């Protein structure tokens, strides 16, 4: 996967807006971060709790939580990993952010 593939995937979801954040590509729904480019070849996905734990356990070669993100609801996806799993994580992050906005 590439960042263009991430953009294509997220671009199909209602309310997603692409922006630049600190000169990095980022995607938001209703002003809430869904994902953004992170270190080279990776994307940061806004997911925490059980969702994050399950993805890391199920796809350890694709997902991880670098020490700097352990205290945050964020997950790092290696774009050379399982594309279907990454797309699923992006959709899940979108769903969670939309739900958070609806509650809040």
UniProtKB/TrEMBL annotation:
Protein name: YjbR protein
Organism: Terrabacter aeriphilus
């Amino acid at each position: 996967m590439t960042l263009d593939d991430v953009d294509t995937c997220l671009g199909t979801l209602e309310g997603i807006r692409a922006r630049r954040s600190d000169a990095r590509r980022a995607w938001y729904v209703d002003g809430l971060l869904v994902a953004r480019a992170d270190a080279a070849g990776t994307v940061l996905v806004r997911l925490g709790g059980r969702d994050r734990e399950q993805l890391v356990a199920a796809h350890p070669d694709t997902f991880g939580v670098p020490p700097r993100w352990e205290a945050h609801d964020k997950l790092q996806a290696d774009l050379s990993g399982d594309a279907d799993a990454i797309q699923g994580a992006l959709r899940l992050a979108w769903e969670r952010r939309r739900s958070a906005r609806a509650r809040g």
